[in-house]
Amino acid sequence: ARQALTLTFSGPPDTAAPGVTIVSPAGGAVLSGVVTVIADATDDRALARAEVLIDNVVAGTVALSGAETRVAFNLDTGKAGVPSGSRTLAVRIFDTTDNQRTAAVGVTIQK
After folding, report:
1. What are 33-42's pLDDT values in tens digits?
2. CB of 39 within 8 A of CB of 103?
3. What is the pTM of this model?
4. Terminal C-alpha separation, the chain
5. Are 73 and 87 a contacting pair, CB within 8 Å?
């Protein structure tokens, strides 16, 4: 008996990293209380998630639907584990194949 062979072509692998720009807060901003971190992201296929980081420590994760390009995350700077002083605030974007890119700004956190 013959067996059927089915091939599915899905195109070339996705190796391109997404793009990301932090819209708010601006570099040099002084942050206190709850601050909305906003970033714009792009990808040639689809976005999956974003992480907001303080000094390379993940402060929160935002799930993105494939076509969604605006990231908004409410960062509570008064929360335990968010250190005061001069810090690096970053947003790391992942596409659906885990390619990633990070944008960062320097901020000051006041408690």
Report:
1. 999 999 999 9
2. yes
3. 0.87
4. 74
5. no
